[in-house]
């Protein structure tokens, strides 16, 4: 892995209230937009200062956990990375990112999601682009041809929070990268403004989603955007979408979904579909990320890794051995024989399901190991394709 250019002398520290005006000015200049509400005093923020003591770059981070199958893995989401245009191309942002990796590790974070302005740039610091999002644009007359019946959809209330939390959690545990949310999350005012539910035939809630209803820009009618779709069954999701299509004056339905969503197969093949790689992920702590996994009870294996990560340890590869037994993973910071060798980008893709061992080996991105170790690694990581909504920082 080639080390990128960055400012090793950048003074990085927690942003204080006195730094907020300058940081917001930097963000406004960097993104050419209003940034007066960025970097709030109650948020976790870092600022980078040059040798003259000038604040030249800033970022915000958020401590949370992500669902990784049945496991919850501590994560640190990074957002609002900004450098003053007058001070660009001096390695300031790189210095800030390198320091952020160490700070998040010190705070117990194992994974970091972010929405990158450049996959190439963040890739130099260990992030991998492996979390695609499906945008499906369909027309209501096509949806109405679906076999699903029409149900009752309505805006959610705070009383629906328990049911929505259950629906979201059931869906989130099927894929890597979804945030672990509390029931109180669904009672927030900003969530209730967009949250809709499908009433069950026997009472309760069968499906929920974050829905935005707006007017068409150059035509009459309404456009509905579904940013998330929570439902334990495909039938419930299809019925929800079918019910939205039946609303008055709906012209277009736009669904933002995981790329493997069955809704892609639900309608006649007359729609617009786009798959975008919006999210990047990085494993911050190889040993702890492995230790948090919840493998199948019957899996017994010993898997060693040697991972090159110049940000965390530039001198030599990180060496870990995972002992898997009884649904738990015990990790020792050493590498036994037949270790799988790769860089942190490749390890992140293996860990998150973006690559299999066989694929990484065929691409020349993985060496070492043997067939038994490769099979055990695949069984441990079980290949879920990650997905994360843009509702939260990342």
Written account of the structure:
The structure is a single chain. The chain has 394 residues and is of the alpha+beta class. It has 3 domains: 118 residues, Gcn5-related N-acetyltransferase (GNAT) (Aminopeptidase); 131 residues, Aminopeptidase, CATH 3.40.630.30; 97 residues, Nonspecific Lipid-transfer Protein, Chain A. Helix content is 24%, strand content 35%. A hairpin with a 2-residue loop joins strand 15 and strand 16. The radius of gyration is 23 Å and the shape is globular.
Question: Regarding CATH, which class of the largest domain?
Answer: Alpha Beta
Shape label? globular
Low-confidence stretches are: none
Named CATH topology of the largest domain = Aminopeptidase
Label the structural class. Answer: alpha+beta
Tell me the strand order in the biggest sheet.
5-13-6-12-11-10-9-7
Whole-number tally of structural domains: 3
**Total strands:** 18
CATH homologous superfamily classification of the largest domain: Gcn5-related N-acetyltransferase (GNAT)
Taking the alpha carbons of the first and last residues, their distance comes to 24 Å
Radius of gyration computed on alpha carbons: 23 Å
Helix content: 10-25%
How is the biggest beta sheet arranged? 8 strands, mixed
Bin the strand percentage: 25-35%
CATH architecture tag of the largest domain? 3-Layer(aba) Sandwich
Average pLDDT value?
Answer: 92
Number of contiguous helices: 11
């Amino acid at each position: 892995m080639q080390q990128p250019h960055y400012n090793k002398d950048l003074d990085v520290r927690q942003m204080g209230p006195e730094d907020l005006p300058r940081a917001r000015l930097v963000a406004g200049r960097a993104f050419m937009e209003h940034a007066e509400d960025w970097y709030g005093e109650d948020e976790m923020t870092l600022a980078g200062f040059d040798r003259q003591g000038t604040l030249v770059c800033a970022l915000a981070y958020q401590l949370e956990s992500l669902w990784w199958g049945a496991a919850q893995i501590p994560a640190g989401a990074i957002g609002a990375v900004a450098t003053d245009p007058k001070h660009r191309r001096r390695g300031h942002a790189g210095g800030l990112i390198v320091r952020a990796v160490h700070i998040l590790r010190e705070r117990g974070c194992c994974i970091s999601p972010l929405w990158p302005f450049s996959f190439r740039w963040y890739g130099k610091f260990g992030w991998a682009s492996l979390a695609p999002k499906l945008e499906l644009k369909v027309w209501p007359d096509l949806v109405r041809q679906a076999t699903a019946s029409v149900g009752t959809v309505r805006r959610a209330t705070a009383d629906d929070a328990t049911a929505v939390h259950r629906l979201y959690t059931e869906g989130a545990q099927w894929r890597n990268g979804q945030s672990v949310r509390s029931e109180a999350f669904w009672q927030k005012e900003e969530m209730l403004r967009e949250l809709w539910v499908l009433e069950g035939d026997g009472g309760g809630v069968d499906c929920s989603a974050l829905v935005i209803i707006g007017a068409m820009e150059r035509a009459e009618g309404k456009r509905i955007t579904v940013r998330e779709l929570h439902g334990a069954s495909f039938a419930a999701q299809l019925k929800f979408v079918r019910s939205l299509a039946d609303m008055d004056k709906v012209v277009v339905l736009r669904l933002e979904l995981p790329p493997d969503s069955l809704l892609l197969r639900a309608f006649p093949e007359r729609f617009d579909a786009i798959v975008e790689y919006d999210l990047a992920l990085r494993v911050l702590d190889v040993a702890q990320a492995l230790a948090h996994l919840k493998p199948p009870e019957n899996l017994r294996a010993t898997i060693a890794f040697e991972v090159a990560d110049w940000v965390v340890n530039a001198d030599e590869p990180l060496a870990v051995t995972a002992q898997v037994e009884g649904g738990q993973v015990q990790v020792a910071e050493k590498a036994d024989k037949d270790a799988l060798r790769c860089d942190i980008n490749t390890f992140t893709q293996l860990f998150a399901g973006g690559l299999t061992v066989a694929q990484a080996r065929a691409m020349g991105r993985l060496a070492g190991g043997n067939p038994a170790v490769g099979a055990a690694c695949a069984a441990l990581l079980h290949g879920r394709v990650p997905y994360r909504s843009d509702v939260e920082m990342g």
